[in-house]
Amino acid sequence: SSAMVDLLQTAAVPPGNRHDGPGSLSNIKGKKSSKKSRARRGKQGRKRRNKRKRNNRTPPPILPPEVATWFWPGINLKLVNPTQYRFEHLATQLKWRLQEGRGEAVYQIGVEDNGLLVGLTEADMKGSLKTLKRMAEKVGADITLLREREVDYGLDRNIRKIAEVLVRKVPDDQQFLDLRVAVLGNVDSGKSTLLGVLTQGELDNGRGRARLNLFRHLHEIQTGRTSSISFEILGFNSKGEVVNYSESRTAEEICESSSKMITFIDLAGHHKYLKTTVFGLTSYCPDFAMLVVSANTGIAGTTREHLGLAMALKVPIFIVVSKVDLCSRGTVERTVRQLERVLKQPGCNKIPMVVMNPDDAVTAAQQFTQSACITPIFTLSSVSGESLDLLKVFLNILPPLSNSKEQEELMQQLTEFQVDEIYSVPDVGTVVGGTLYSGVCREGERLVVGPTEEGRFLRLKVGSIQRNRSACRVLKAGQAATLALGNFDRSLLRKGMVMVSPKMNPTICCQFEAAIVLLFHAKTFRRGSQVTVHVGNVRQTATVEGLHGKDELRTGERAVVRFRFIKHPEYLRLSAKLLFREGVTKGIGHVTRLLPQDQNLNHDQNLQDY
């Protein structure tokens, strides 16, 4: 610090040379100074020292300048008593930033545009927050104070503060922000119990009571192990408060009250249900992945495999260490250190960040989406509720990965809906669930679904639409929903199909080429090998028809491989991520070329009425 530097500089000067005036120690012999002159010189010396200290005081800390990202859209020094013209300008600016952040924005008060942390006095901070609240009310939003801290530097005795404020739009007509989080982890790590506690608002009794509402089958209740994919929702209102089933709310009421919705995709942890877990990761397009690790067992079973799958598919991941109430503090710390070692390995290259307090949770949410290397780690208990609020703070301010511009570009494209689930609902008929990849889908819209085993597409009409179990008139790109198809024959549908606009001429193929890297194989990977291929919502066994430039592949090697589906053609997209497996054999890659099946039919002849 500058004080320490001044101290060292002063100590380095010999005592006899610190003053050159007539009253210095070197000239004091033979001379006498009056008390008045000594007092005057002492006063002048103090003035010179204070002036030197003011000139050498520590400069205020600096943040990086404002950048065009979701999380730092509003950096403002002071918003005290603006003129009417200035207020209208600020409100328009806030409205634009909310649109860019898909309904959310974070303002920093007391920070200059170049990132200098100057801070505001108590009165100016109250006035700025009052102005920001008026701006939010004008555009139909609420504000939440995330954190406030003091800026201390130099000799300024006035307390100055900076604040971070979350501005979130009040929901209207089902236009809430929806984030999908895939829940991964080894069997018995507490995934379903944690989701039950988050969404039901009640702590677990230590014997799995909280997870009972998540199970879909009797054998899941009897064994306590998830074998299918289930969905649970957690809402946050415009003020950042949790909205869940704690007050006997229905799913429709939760959606109506929420400005932000977290949809948890509960996946299976047991190794024999691995194909279900892989399908959930590839098909449902999760924005983030939450890896749950039991504190008393550490990294065991499928934990490493699930971590590798999320990283291979480039899904941002954060880690939750559960069951901390069952073991000592030393055991928890040992599990955290074990996770840190794995994350820092050359294959991962992650920077672990242990969240210990609310300030850490806010920082983790900020850094998580800005840097692909940051991996937050939470330690909590679903029985005692320890540190559960930190996870809620993190989820509340976790921003979306895509901005409004990217979503609008997808909405301009033709409609394409992935079929992930198929149901038969009494008095409704056939219902399909999935994700709208591109375009906009409305009630009553006419689409075509396929490909069938013969490679054809069938015409159909969309009835009603539901998002998170509540009615919705319009479905936008990137949103998940269920569509009612009326009396359409369910036997003609299967998982992996797509519903597209009749204007689209979809390319279907039995063969395709992909650039792959073989992650593991016990022997060699060669022509004739059969593997289960996952591409988006497509899951089918394929045969290796050939390797370009090589006869065989070993673990860690790369090549361009031609695959052939063994049952029926599929609809694929170029550059789509690909994952294949068979036993212990695993590999990843992306589609580089489609080889359409030979057809003599034109597009109109390839469509059939149902």
UniProtKB/TrEMBL annotation:
CDD domains: GTPBP1_like, GTPBP_II, GTPBP_III. Keywords: GTP-binding, Nucleotide-binding. GO terms for molecular function: GTP binding; GTPase activity; translation elongation factor activity. Pfam families: GTP_EFTU, GTP_EFTU_D2. Residues 176-404 form the Tr-type G domain. Residues 1-63 are annotated as: Disordered. InterPro entries: EF-Tu_GTPase, EFTu-like_2, GTPBP1-like, P-loop_NTPase, T_Tr_GTP-bd_dom, Transl_B-barrel_sf, Transl_elong_EF1A/Init_IF2_C. Residues 29-56 have a biased composition (Basic residues). It comes from the Eukaryota. Belongs to the TRAFAC class translation factor GTPase superfamily. Classic translation factor GTPase family. EF-Tu/EF-1A subfamily. This is Tr-type G domain-containing protein. It comes from Xiphophorus couchianus (Monterrey platyfish).
